[in-house]
Amino acid sequence: MSRVWSIALHGGAGPIRQADYSAAEAHMAETLKIACAALEVGARAVDVAEKAIMALEESGHHIAGRGASPNALGQWELDAAIMDGETRNAGAVAALRGFRSPIRAARMVMDHSRHVMLVGKGASLFLRGRGLRRVWNPRDYYRPSVKRTIEPGELAHGTVGAVVLDGEGRLAAATSTGGLLGKMPGRVGDTPILGAGTWADERVAVSCTGQGEYFMRAAVAADISARVRYGKLGLKEAAAAALEDVHFLGGDGGLIAVDVLGNITVPFISESMKRGIASSRGEFHVAVRR
User: Fold this and answer.
1) How deeply is 11 buried, as exposed, middle or buried, from its count of CB atoms within 10 A (0-12, 13-18, 19+)?
2) Which residues touch 140 (CB under 8 Å, ≥6 apart)?
3) Which whole-number Å values give the CA distances from 53 to 106, 137, 173, 269, in the listed order?
4) pLDDT for position 144
5) What element of type H or E holds 234?
6) Does residue 173 form part of some domain?
7) Residue 265 known to be catalytic
8) What is the CATH number of the domain that holds 32?
9) Which of 140, 170, 231, 241 has the most CB within a 10 Å radius?
10) What is the tally of structural domains in the chain?
11) Which residues constitute the domain of residue 64?
12) pLDDT band for position 146 (50/70/90)?
């Protein structure tokens, strides 16, 4: 087994100015430590990514999982995707209602269906009876991590993500979100769209966060891999160039990425981004602001 492994997590770009994120940072650090211990003993990248996202979802510190906010009708519709870079197998769910862990639901789609994405009622029908934990009383379970009035036209957002390189050189990415605050019912952003908000192959793993409409229009996640493959750019340069495309279109956000060499980059063009990195080289860092 290769001794090189790396992991990066994010809890969303553009946190509210002057808010106290100490609890979120502490939880992310603990989640990273658990992931590091698993990678140290040979865990697969895709499994580590899934478990890290499950922990971030359940924490309630982010606009994903338990911390998600309702849409304009007061309903919780959540999105998630997971991708195994070794095989390019992937699973995604969108506008999912009634399940505690959207990333676990996405993993079920990947492992137990012939499809890549299931949405809405179809996803719920597929997932029923498969042992996933349910949300029976949404207003009792969800604890929105952001409570504020959304201005007309504002794309206020939040997401959690993980990218992992394991000791065998396998890459994986996973992303989960509650979507835009106060979004229109049925709105789906970049998170469950492979190549836009989530991507993993034999070169890189990427998870994005930000205004999903712009990340979809720029195909950011897969674009980074293409820039590495065809443009011969390093990971940091490729990620920065892809984000510059988002900025050019008028969007904001950030991303986390890791390559097969274990390099990590966590760029963002928003004011801040909740993020954490760790590696077998001794790196370990958690931060929110620049």
Assistant:
1) buried
2) none
3) 11, 22, 10, 23
4) 87
5) none
6) yes
7) no
8) 3.60.20.30
9) 170
10) 1
11) 6-287
12) confident
Token couple for 175: 């992303």
62 part of a folded domain: yes
**Predicted local confidence at residue 2, as pLDDT:** 59
Q: What is the mean pLDDT of residues 241-264?
A: 97
Query: Cα(112)–Cα(93) distance, rounded to whole angstroms?
Result: 13
Q: What predicted TM-score, i.e. pTM, was given to this entire model?
A: 0.95
Helix (H) or strand (E) holding 222: helix 220-229
Instruction: With cut-offs at 50, 70 and 90, classify the pLDDT of residue 152.
Output: very low
Q: Does 1 map to a domain?
A: no
| In 41-134, alpha helices (H) | 45-59, 102-112, 120-127
Three-class secondary structure of residue 95 per DSSP = strand
182-223 pLDDT tens trace: 899 999 999 999 999 999 999 999 999 999 999 999 999 999
Tell me the three state secondary structure of residue 199: strand
